Amino acid sequence: MSDTIQQDANNMAIGAGKFNIPMPPTFTDKFAQRQYEKQRLAAGFRAFALHQFDEGLAGHITLRDCIEPDTFWVNPLGIHFSMIKASDLVRIDHKGNIIDGAHAVNNAAFAIHSRVHMARPDVNAVAHAHTKYGRAFSALGELLKPISQDACMFYENHGLFETFTGVVAHKDEGDMIAQALGEHSAVILQNHGLITVGSSVDAAVANFILMDSCCQSQLLAQAAGPLTLIGHDTALKTKAANGSDLVTWGNFQPLYSMLHASDPSFLA
């Protein structure tokens, strides 16, 4: 375990040096890693379904392939998130060619996600959906404010894409979205929804669920009265504690355990 990961573990849990706490697995077999990561991606869709992030054909989560990193896995068009299995996933390249899989793919998923994966080699997963609170907040045309410990995760850590021209169908708009994302963990697509990214599917999905919840919290707080903001230095310190790869990965683990216990069919 690296010093950085150990320090993150110590910050996350009392007794981290003595007792086992969840840690991302490591692999020597790339094909075993691919299968594991596909199963996590399938679980991500089950998590989205649980949170009612499904809206018809909209919404997608992608995973960079660990063997051929210029390709990525994505959900098949027309299968409900609650029914997606690892074997249903489709792998495409940055030109839009289907490499593996037996289903069509949402064109908007390709136009957006391919450009984000190309622009951010550090990002292995990208999550996007048209959620109730994400859509509502995106109509404000503003960034989230640091009004809570959870919202600090996105303080100076998300962008705003202020252009809406309809359904994303061209790679040029995907390039603009990637530019608005920058080096951040998320971007609000004005009048559209949210995108989050992560070094793993677990992190990207956990970040998305958290961001949607933060949108809901700010909408509720703004409706009730003036906001009291967390100070700049404290917000940055809180973001540093909550935004590490280990913590963002860890945020998905309780949900994954519940999904696996209730219906492990996504593994197939």
TrEMBL record:
GO terms for cellular component: cytoskeleton. It comes from Paraglaciecola mesophila. Belongs to the aldolase class II family. One of its GO terms (molecular function) is lyase activity. Residues 39-219 form the Class II aldolase/adducin N-terminal domain. Its EC number is 4.1.-.-. GO terms for biological process: monosaccharide metabolic process. This is Decarboxylase NovR. Keywords: Lyase. The keyword Lyase applies.
